[in-house]
Amino acid sequence: MDSRRVAELHNPHQKSGGTGYLIRDNIILTAHHNIAPLGQPGILGTRYHIRFIGDYLQGRIDWIEEACCLCWDAPDPKYDLALLKLSDKPKFLSSQEPVICFGKILNNTLSAEGFGFPLAQEIKNRQNPEPLEGRLSRIAGIKEGQLRLQVTSPIPDSPNQWQGISGTALFVDDFLVGVVVETNKSFGEKLLWATPISSVATDKEFCELVLGESNKSLFLEEIETNVINQPSRSSTALSKGESELRQNLLKLVKNQWVKPKLADELEIIQLCLEEIPEAISQEASNYLSQESSKELQKTKVIDLFDENNCLLILGEAGSGKSITLMELTNTLITRASDEPEEKIPVIFYLSSWSNGKDIRDWLIERLDMDYKVPEEDGKLLVDDNKLVILLDGLDLVPSQDRDRCIDFLNNFTDIKRQIVVCSRCQQDQKYSNNSLLNFDKAVKLKPLTEEKIESYLKKLNKDNRLDGLKEIISQDNTIKGLVKLPLWLSIIVKVYNKDIFNRLLQEDNISIKLWKKKLFEQYISYIYSIKNSHIKYLDKASKYSILKKVNNTDERLKMLQRKTLTNLTWLAQKMQSEKYKDSIFFIENMQPNWLDSRTQKQDYYFGVLLISGLFSSLIGFVHIPLQPVDNWKYTLCTGLLGGFCVPLFYVWDYLFRRNQGKEINPANKLVWSWGAIIKNLRQNWSVCFLIGLVVALPSAWLEVHGIIDLYKSGIEKNIIRHLDSINLIALVLIYTLLVAAIIWLVYGFTANLAIGELSSQIDPNQGIWNSLRNTQLVGLIAGIIIGLIFFLVGLFVQKHPMVSAIKYGIGYGLIAGWFLAICSSSGKTCIKHFALRLILYKNKLIPWNYAQFLDYASQIVLLQKSGGGYQFFHQEFQEYLTERSKKSAIKDSDS
């Protein structure tokens, strides 16, 4: 398509305009209703104003008044086409312009493009051209004799803003196949309708004007596939790094997010959908006729996604929203794996969104935290619109923040993004127009029908275990309502026991809440009735728990069940609190504010100081193999100074940075930049000076009194060249400045230096393991820098022999590298996390090997593993455990 040939038309008689395309050096193709009201014939010879994009490119912006006239009008009004003839050939055309080629699409859906002048692009009484892209289908409009264009490029906010796009020529590759003629039909589906050029291919007058020859028809190239749909080296070839990022992310989403949730027999039930137009913005919703709504009940969610870029999926708790979302994700992963141009589907949980955060920034942050995608790669994926964004849990956003979250989501759809949002809704929920998602379609998962329930029970009743369940369902309205929801149908089938259910039915006025509580209790009993699934964990856990004191397997299982419920109840309580705004639990995201009592918090802070001091004091032992004289003195002095100074960094952080976000902040990648260096130097000069003074005071005193030999004699002999010229105060000042300067510079340049890459496997607590690797890297870099400095000091100031100077540099490089690694942001993260885990374990709130326990809970389907995190197998189970913890707390307070 040659964009120069795109024309903006103005009809001075109707005071309206539209778009046209120069298909010959003096012939413009446009829509009939641009030059005369629809249904009324145009008057041949009537003149119109025009201006081309080609004229704009040459600096001409004014209208060419009455530059063209009507020379042909479609004999059949339904085609809505017209031809205009120019008085003069446009100046931007050269003498040898390529001939326009025409095409006819067959049964395929093809990518098409064009340029038009919509009213939405009006700026100071001038409408800018707007690219138009979409998927063109012949079959969808075959009854009307039209082509349907599913728009994929940005669209206006309302139907009237499309005005002016009529007459846009649509091209598939280099072939003109149709002209846009209708704009406001099915606006909610983002559809435009076009007249195929094949409809006038045999019209004699049309062909004579276009071809310049009589008795000749248009030659139409039959198009089945187009280059736009096929990967080309120039446009779709990915670099090795991009391809690896893409494949790893697809593999990660599939293996660690989708597969665990689709491993359920409920997949054999085909869930039904109904449209809820009142759940989204009125001007964007697609109102269907009653007949269309019936068809929607049989429509798969992937079909709805293909027709609507932005889709809202609603459902009651337990209605199958998560399974529906995972099935959609699974299909999109298969597509993206086969086609490099397809977007990557990625799942995010809106419960982690914090009020006031832009959706773009939040997505980049979650890509880093949940998928370990480095920030720069995350920005590329989001900004270049390479993701299908699948958002679950809009209902879990706090109610006071939800309207603002919806506003951010609506603003985020300003370009052609593909977004699916899942949210829980109540059965008779009323929707307010004040704050609704501006999405294309909203659908709701319908309760299971009696036929589907009966078919499901029949398939699973191969051993006659479910005999009698159908009768019980018919006797109790509460059970009858519960089995219509896939979650409860699955649980009831698993835990069904005729005697237990008959006993429950005999209780008077048993509410739905009590039924759910009893069913969850039976579900837990059912899980622990399967002994083989627990034996492996029993053997591992017995190595470091009280379970090893019990020999009887049944007793061990009972004890394990109690401990598991206690640990999961505590976890559910913390995740339900305002302190943890996420439906997924990551071990590395635990914070000290999870500690309840003042004593626990005091133990934690004391433990951080003790652990950091102990670790830093141990490095003094490096002097024993490397120091030739008085190595025990240097070991003792270094250990004492390190054990006292390093915790000062932690105290400094607590006093001056405790309100700057999370206290424990693991990072997959800590970016090294000049901005970070300057910020680090500015923030830490005072604590570095303080540590320099703390190190200098005892060191200078010990050296002046002849207990140890450091640098005094070397400075006096080799630099100042006056013996005994440095007194205690001067030595303290020299050592303070030297130590502070070295620590300040090296710490400023290395504390936030680390490397992290996306892996196709995310392990539990990976953020802490990455932080530990980053700590080692910081220590290595700092150790090399300071080791080199002290090697030069030993060689030129102390005048040591080469071998002694090398030992000298290695020794102090190891000490400084160890100290600075522990004091780096990654080192602090590791030590604080370890101290927190220690306190939680000491108070019997978590097992020692927490990841192993959470994996075990996932294997017995009390939790589900999601990437490197965990979530309860259903939100209602988490709420049940939270309620259980509240009742336990009430009992404890009463006792």
Mean pLDDT: 81
Percentage of helical residues?
A: 40-55%
Instruction: Tell me the radius of gyration.
Output: 36 Å
Poorly predicted runs: 228-238, 283-295, 753-758, 889-895
Taking the sheet with the most strands, its summary is: 8 strands, mixed
**Helix segment tally:** 28
Q: Quote the distance from N terminus to C terminus.
A: 82 Å
Q: Quick one: how many beta strands?
A: 24
Structural class: alpha+beta
Oligomer: single chain
Shape: flat
Instruction: Give the percentage of residues in beta strands.
Output: 15-25%
Please supply descriptive tags for the structure shown above.
895 residues; 8-stranded mixed β-sheet; 6-stranded antiparallel β-barrel; disordered C terminus
Describe the structure.
This protein has 895 residues and is of the alpha+beta class. Helix content is 46%, strand content 15%. The protein contains 28 helices and 24 strands. The strands form five sheets. Strands 7, 8, 11, 12, 13, 14, 15 and 16 form an eight-stranded mixed beta sheet that branches. A six-stranded antiparallel beta barrel has the order 1-2-3-6-5-4. Helix 3 (240-262) runs antiparallel to helix 6 and helix 18 packs antiparallel against helix 20. The longest helix has 32 residues, at 766-797. The model is unreliable at 228-238, 283-295, 753-758 and 889-895 (pLDDT under 50).
